[in-house]
Amino acid sequence: MSIHRTHIPNSLNEHWMPFSANRDFKKNPRLITGARGVYLTTHEGNTLIDASSGLFCNPLGHGREEIIQAVSKQLRELDYTLPFNQGFGGSFQLATRIAKHTPENLNKIFYTICGSTAVESAIKIAMAYHAAKGDKKRFRFVGRDRGYHGMNIGGLSVGGFNNYKEMCANILMPGVQHMRHTFLPEHKFVKGQPDTGAELADDLEMIANKYQGEIAACLVEPIAGSTGTLVPPKGYLDRLKKICDKHGILLIYDEVITGWGRTGSAFAAQEFGVTPDIMTMAKATTNGIVPMGVVAVRDNIYDAIVNSTPEGTIELFHGYTYSGIPIAVAAALAVQDIFEKEDIFNRVKQMSSYFQDGLHSLKDLDCVESIRGYGMMGGIDIRKKDKPGKAGFQVYKSCYDNGVNFKATADALILAPPFICEKKHIDEIFDKLRKGITQYIRG
Ligand SMILES: Cc1ncc(COP(=O)(O)O)c(C=O)c1O
Fold first, then answer.
1. Is the per-residue pLDDT at 6 higher than 70?
2. 115 in ligand 1 pocket by Cβ < 6 Å?
3. Where are the beta strands (DSSP E) in 221-291?
4. pTM of this prediction?
5. Please, which pLDDT band fits residue 3 given cuts at 50, 70 and 90?
6. Which of 22, 67, 123, 338 has the fewest CB atoms within 10 Å, i.e. is most exposed?
C-alpha cells in the first residue's frame, strides 16, 4: 500500500510511544487526524470504524457536542481549583449522580486520575479500612492470572500479566497471591457466561486458609477485559464473595472496562448480581475525553476510616493534584446526562445479542482459535506464530488497512464498539474484520 505522507510531523523520533512497537510504527506510522461518531479518519484520508471505543473509553462516540460544550463552559468559568480541603460544587453533584448508579451502599466516591490510580487508591483504602478496625496484620492482596489493573506498582503486582512484571520483579508489592484465571478449554466458543468453572473461586479459599487473617482484599475484574474478555463462569463471583465474607476479606471489583454500561447494566456488579465492597471505574466516566478515575466505596468502609481519626485532621493521606478537576467533572456530568437521555444501558442490552452473533460469525476463519464475549465486549484469539503477539499485531495491522480499528493484546483481538452503534455499524465492523483477517491468512 502506498503511504501518502500528509499530516505527518517532521520528526517522529522524540515521542516515545507507550505500549507500542516504536520502531515499526515510525517506519510506517498510523496517525489519526479526526473522529466523529463511530468513525476515525487517518492521515492518509481513510475512514476507520472504531470497534474498540478507543481504549474502551468512548462508548458515546466521538465529537459529542454536549460534552464539548460542557467542558468549554467549565474552562471559561473555573479551569482549576485545588482539591484538598476545598472544592467546587460540581464534584459533589457528580458524586451524588455516580452513587445513584452504584449498587447497594457503595455511596462514597473518591476521585483519581485514571484507572491505574483508581486501583492504587482502592488498595490503600482497603489497607486503611483494616487499620481503622485495628487489624494491622492484613497486608496481602489476592489477584488473578490474566487480570489487568493498570501500570502502577500496586496494580501491576496484583495484576496477572507476568511479562509486564518482569522488569519490576524486585520492586513489586510483597505478599501478593494469585488465583488461576477462569478460562477453561471448554470455554473456547461459548457465548456469554460459561456453565463450568465456578469452583475456580475456591483458589481463594485455599489462599485464605494458608494466610489466615492476613489478606486485606481480593481484586478482580468481573470480566477480565485486557486479556481478551474472559467472562466469569456462572456462580463464580457469588462463590468468591462468600469466601471473602467468610474470611473478612474485602472484595474489590476493577470495573474500569465493565463500568458504565459495557455489560448492559450500569456495572457488572448489577449484571451478575454480586456486589463488591469497593469498585473502581475510569474510561467511560468522561467518555474518555478527560482523564478521570473513580473509586466507589461502601458507606461502612468510609465511616470506619473517617471516624478513626480526631475531627479536624486528615483521615486518609491520599489524593492527587488532578483528583476530580473541574473539566473532568464537567465532562462526566455531561456523560451522565447522555446516559439518561439516551437510555444508554438499555440500548446496550438490546444490541448485545446482535453484537455477540456477529462476533461468533467469525468462528469459521482458519486462524481463529477462540471467541468469547458478553454485552458489548468480545475477544478473539488468533493462532500464535513463532513469537507471542506477532500474529495479533499482524492481524491488527491488516484490519486497520481494511478500515476497522481496535486494540490487540498479544494474540487477542479486543472488541468493544461504541454503544451508539446501530446494526449497520456492527455489520460493518464484522465485514471489515473478516476482510482483514482473511487478508492476513492469505499472507
Ligand atoms: C481493568 C483495568 N484496570 C485498570 C486499568 C488502567 O487504566 P489506565 O490506563 O487509565 O491507568 C485498565 C486499563 O485498560 C483496565 O482495563
1. no
2. yes
3. 250-254, 278-281
4. 0.97
5. very low
6. 22
By most ligand atoms within 8 Å of CB, the mutation choice from 221, 257, 262, 267 for ligand 1 is 257
Q: Is the CB of 253 under 6 A from ligand 1?
A: no
- Mean pLDDT value of segment 374-394: 97
Residue 307, domain member (yes or no):
yes
Per the domain annotation, does 69 fall within a domain? Answer: no
* Identity at 14, one-letter amino acid code: E
What is the total count of domains within the chain? 1
**Residue 215 maps to which CATH number?**
3.40.640.10
Question: For ligand 1, is residue 119 a contact (CB within 6 Å)?
Answer: yes
Ligand 1 near 149 CB (within 6 A): yes
For residue 155, the ligand 1 atom closest to its alpha carbon is: 4
Mutate to test the pocket of ligand 1, among 53, 116, 294 (most ligand atoms within 8 A of CB): 116
191-207 pLDDT per residue, tens:
999 999 999 999 999 99
The pLDDT of residue 5: 55
With a 6 A CB cut-off, is 226 part of the ligand 1 pocket?
A: yes
In a domain? residue 141: yes
CB atoms within 10 A of CB 252: 29
Three cell numbers written together for 317: 493521606
Instruction: Compute the distance from residue 256 Cα to the ligand 1 centre, in Å.
Output: 6
Full residue range of the structural domain in which residue 189 is found: 74-341
Enclosing H/E stretch for 300:
helix 299-306
CB 306 within 8 A of CB 50: no
Which pLDDT does position 287 carry in this prediction?
98
Instruction: Read off the C-alpha cell for 251.
Output: 472484595
Instruction: Give the 3-state secondary structure of residue 109.
Output: strand
What pLDDT sits at residue 265? 98
